[in-house]
Design a protein that fits this description.
Largest sheet: 9 strands, mixed
Shape: globular
Number of strands: 22
Radius of gyration: 25 Å
CATH class of the largest domain: Alpha Beta
CATH architecture of the largest domain: Alpha-Beta Barrel
Helix content: 25-40%
Bound molecules: pyridoxal-5'-phosphate
CATH topology of the largest domain: TIM Barrel
Structural class: alpha/beta
Distance between the termini: 67 Å
Length: 448
């Protein structure tokens, strides 16, 4: 029998964050694989830290969402929200499933076109669309969603330049009972601004309003807000159709469905507070049926991002250093922090260990490698005693982390995808110095 390793005793200060009963949980969660591939195999192949995406999970989340809507309403189209994750491999999976692209800048527009998406299959949102991008989008038949009165003028110039009437949609904002209200984007319904925009477009005679769009927020925990949103959009549609010659062919209700992530400040777990995709679908489609005359059902667009990918993404990290803090907490320094998980400010992640560790669970601070005090992944989590080289798997991190990560202090790591057959693939290489310096220019006089 091998000799047991000596472990120094620990005195635990009872802290309110430890648990409701004041007693620490004696279990820690283990994840030794992702979709059947061991954590060590993934790290050996691509290094640490490492983002890993599960194709099976993405496809099943998409199919479940599509089914929830298409089983209730006949004419449904999802647009994959590029800003949620615009890696080519990720977008291709959603496009293969049938989603078109939803973009919010000329950069994202170009990215979608570069991936082979036709202009007609691009929804072009965003508060700032440079003139040249509006011109391209109009030429290519994209669905352009107008955000401001200035954009109306720009698009009228585009219409003159192309010699055609340009089909457009207007973006709307409204009170759906959600605070704070997202009133910064598009035209407000309640104040009459939205109808003013319609009249302005009608008077110009160069644009055709064919759709209405609104996106009421992200991580929306109240499905009923979507019901209010849909009712208000349908009412505006009726007002437009009875006062102008415009025919509204589609309503786009945006994105915002929550994932099973733990938003900080919520007492109950996501399994309790997050509505199901059926709840969201029921809220939206019932509002359509209750408020539209039968036979006049516009196409329904959705721009769901987070809900379709968050739970498919993991970040594998390695422990680089440990110490005890003066307040008694253990401090674990990982090789990934808020540079890769900007969203750590809002979410409390699942932190799982790749291997079981013995020893007393104790309050621990898990932070990243940045030389910055705010680089915290979790400031109070119960962990057994860990040692250098241990791996921690952070989830769910599929939404927004790849697009919001920062090249700050450290290189951005590799991203891998596990396909539906259980094989892993590199979908983005780890960065190195040349990637960072390639756009830099050293003026001649500084070279000496
Ligand atoms: C216009 C628009 N559509 C769709 C989305 C995707 O939202 P989510 O990821 O919350 O579904 C966003 C994100 O904020 C957005 O701004």
């Amino acid at each position: 029998m091998s000799k047991k390793v000596y472990e120094s005793p620990t005195i635990l200060k009872i802290q309110s964050s430890m648990s409701k009963a004041g007693l620490p949980s004696m279990q820690h969660k283990i994840r030794d694989n992702i979709d059947g591939i061991s954590i060590s195999e993934l790290i050996n192949a691509y290094g640490s830290p490492l983002f890993v995406f599960s194709e099976s999970k993405m496809r099943s989340l998409y199919q479940e969402a599509y089914e929830a809507f298409s089983s209730r309403y006949p004419n449904v189209q999802f647009g994959w929200s590029y800003k949620t994750n615009y890696l080519k491999a990720i977008c291709s999976i959603f496009h293969q499933e049938g989603a078109i692209a939803e973009v919010v800048s000329e950069f994202e527009y170009e990215k979608a076109r570069n991936s082979g998406v036709e202009g007609k299959d691009i929804i072009f949102n965003g508060p700032y669309k440079p003139y040249h991008s509006l011109l391209t989008a109009a030429k290519e038949g994209a669905k352009i969603h107008i955000d401001t009165f200035d954009e109306i003028s720009d698009l009228e110039k585009v219409s003159d330049e192309l010699g055609v009437k340009v089909p457009v949609a207007i973006r709307l904002n409204m009170n759906t009972g959600i605070e704070p209200q997202w009133s910064r984007f598009g035209f407000n319904i309640e104040s009459g601004q939205a109808m003013d925009a319609v009249r302005r477009i009608e008077a110009g005679g160069k644009l055709l309003i064919t759709g209405l769009h609104s996106h009421i927020g992200t991580f929306m925990l109240d499905a009923n807000a979507y019901k209010l949103q849909t009712v208000k959009m349908v009412n505006l549609m009726k007002e437009i159709e009875s006062n102008t010659d415009f025919i509204i062919e589609y309503l786009d209700v945006g994105g915002g469905f929550a994932s099973k992530a733990h938003l900080k400040g919520l007492y109950q777990p996501p399994e309790v507070v997050v509505p199901s995709i059926d709840d969201y679908a029921e809220a939206i489609t019932s509002a359509l049926y209750e408020n539209l005359e039968s036979g006049n059902y516009p196409k329904l667009y959705l721009e769901t991002g987070r809900h379709l990918i968050d739970e498919a993404g993991y970040l594998i990290t390695s422990l680089t250093g440990t110490k005890r803090l003066p307040d008694g907490r253990m401090n674990y320094i990982m090789d990934a922090g808020v540079n890769l998980l900007y969203t750590a400010f809002w979410f409390k992640y699942n932190l799982e260990l790749a291997e079981k560790r013995d020893g007393m669970m104790e309050p621990s601070l898990v932070n990243g490698p940045l030389c910055m005090n705010i680089d915290i992944i979790d400031d109070s989590v119960m962990m057994p005693r860990l040692k250098r080289g241990d791996h921690m798997i952070i989830s769910p991190v599929g939404a927004y982390s790849i697009t919001q990560w920062m090249q700050f202090i450290r290189y951005r790591p590799a991203v891998a995808l596990i396909d539906t057959q259980g094989k892993h693939h590199l979908i983005r290489e780890a960065e190195e110095l040349k990637d960072i310096e390639t756009r830099e220019v050293l003026p001649e006089y500084l070279k000496a």
